[in-house]
Structure formats: C-alpha cells, structure tokens
Specification:
- The structure is a single chain.
- With 188 residues, the protein is of the alpha+beta class.
- It has one domain.
- It contains 7 helices and 4 strands, in the order ααβαβααβαβα.
- The chain has a 4-stranded antiparallel β-sheet, with helices on both faces.
- Helix 1 packs antiparallel against helix 2 and helix 3 runs antiparallel to helix 6.
- The radius of gyration is 17 Å and the shape is globular.
- It comes from Corallococcus coralloides (strain ATCC 25202 / DSM 2259 / NBRC 100086 / M2).
Length: 188
C-alpha cells in the first residue's frame, strides 16, 4: 500500500510512488457517452481521499482558420466560461503553449485537483452545473469546447486519517502542480 511505502522509501520516493500510481491507470472519457461516464463515477469509492488528474490530447482539435491551436482553445473556453460562472478555472496560456510546443500530439495535464470524496469531486467536474457555487470544470456542459480533444482521467487514493487531510493532500497537490504544470487551475 502507498502509505506503507513512506516508512520504507522516504519522502521523495514516496512522492514518486504517488505520481506513478496517479498516472498508472488513466480512464478514457467520452463526454457524449453519459452512461459510460456515470459507470466510471460509480467505480470510484466515495470514501476515497486523494488526487485526480484530467489529461487532454489536442491532436484531433480543429482550429479556426489561421489561428494557433492554443489561441482557438483559449477563446472557446473563455466564451464558455462566461456562461458557467460563478467559478470555473481559467486557462494558463503560457502553460498551454509550453505543453503544445514540447509535444503537440501528446497527453498534457489539463487539471489536477484534490478531494476528500474523490467520487463527488470528479462527478462535479463531469456533471456540475453553474448553479453550484464551487469551482469545477463542468465538462458535460462544455461538450463543444472539447470537440476533437481526447480526454482521460486518473485518480489515486492516499490513505490517511481525516485529521491530516488539510496538511498532507495540499502538499502533494502543490508538488504535482510544479511537476506537471496543468493547463487549467492555480498552483496553491
């Protein structure tokens, strides 16, 4: 188990073990296949505490004529964001361009988050609506924005007592924000 690894490996290797676990089993997402999304959500234990990662591959994304992919995606997201306030993460143009310059057809960290109920938090990102007051991607409402973008999701439970959540999970979230530089959301 990951928690036992900390005693044996030490801090840095423990962080690497969690990173490996988080990226080990990504699940493909098809926003048009709502029953499959509900089935995926149902497979996540609601008692899990940990991290989740949405990744995107832009190789099939259609750009507007004469505009770079990054600009097209950002404009589309920002138009959509106005409709889905009060809280939606913004796109970091610099990070998006950096990812695309490094590997235009590869998988890129889209959004990294934490949750003390992974099922609920992931469900918010997939099916949340603008009437809920907390920040989430609301992917189901933004189907058009992601047309041609391949998406996948992975998550990793980090076993611990509930009283340690506010100390431990944000530490890992910050470390992985620094490592993967997600395109959306803020590093804490």
């Amino acid at each position: 188990m990951i928690a036992d690894a900390y005693d044996v490996l030490g801090q840095e290797q423990y962080v690497n073990a969690i990173a490996t676990s988080l990226k080990a089993t990504p699940q493909s997402l098809n926003l048009a296949d709502v029953p499959a999304l509900y089935e995926l959500i149902g497979s996540v234990d609601e008692r899990l505490v940990g991290l989740y990662l949405f990744e995107a591959c832009f190789s099939g994304y259609r750009t507007q004529q004469g505009k770079p992919l990054a600009q097209t995606f950002i404009e589309s997201w920002e138009r959509s964001k106005k409709e889905h306030e009060p809280a939606s993460p913004g796109v970091n143009r610099g990070r998006l361009e950096k990812h695309l310059n490094r590997d235009p057809s590869g998988w890129h960290a889209l959004y990294l988050g934490k949750g003390n109920n992974l099922r609920g938090r992931i469900s918010d990102h997939l099916f949340g609506n603008k009437y809920k007051g907390w920040s989430c991607l609301r992917l189901g409402e933004r189907f058009k924005v992601f047309e041609g973008v391949s998406l996948r999701l992975s998550w990793c439970a980090i076993p611990m007592g509930a009283d340690h959540y506010d100390l431990v999970i944000p530490y890992f979230e910050k470390r992985f924000h620094e490592l993967w530089e997600p395109i959306m959301g803020n590093s804490r």
